[in-house]
Amino acid sequence: MYNTIILDVDGTLIDTEKAVLKSLQKMLAIEYNITKDVEELEFVWGIPGSSSLPLLGIEDTEKGDILWNVYMKEFVDSISVFSGIRELLSTLHERNIQVGIVTSKTKIELEDDFVPFGLMKYLSFVVCADDTLLHKPNPEPIQKFLEISGADPRSSIYIGDTTYDYQCARDAGVSFGLAVWGAKKDHGIDAKHLFNNPNEVLEFVAE
After folding, report:
1. Which PANTHER family match (predicted)?
2. Which of 23, 65, 97, 141 is deepest in the core (most CB within 10 A)?
3. What 3-state class would DSSP assign to 179?
């Protein structure tokens, strides 16, 4: 049983795949004259722009991130909360389970893409890309979460949708649960738990 639930955001709490990839595709074409199919950009999923943009030949990642966020606003209507997430967070809150997020989003991106859905009230601790020097798949983001929350890694679980999430959790010494509802594929991830829908998470937390 777990008493601390740590959640990823993109692909776990909210469905941002179309917005993230289509905005990047448009930004690259207009601002950098780089033409890519959406499928060619899927590798950026789950890591911050500071890590992914250099792989696309963009050296000024700060400028690239700003432009990406501008184009992201054009696709904001395609972002939605995954079915069952509101109910999961509400129930965890009622059971006094410590809940927080570790995300590759910057604070600004979280403010733009996630905060409007009204879910922040359920979160006790938040770790964004700005909060650590290293990012997923490095364990530092979850280590930061454990540091600020005082959570015991042995009774904590990180739930995410990518291999980056899994590697981050594994190397931070916490269990990993795959959010099957948001995962594009399991990529052979050796997750301790496979959650087909958010409600299944409740089976592993205290009443």
Report:
1. PHOSPHOGLYCOLATE PHOSPHATASE, PYROPHOSPHATASE PPAX
2. 141
3. strand
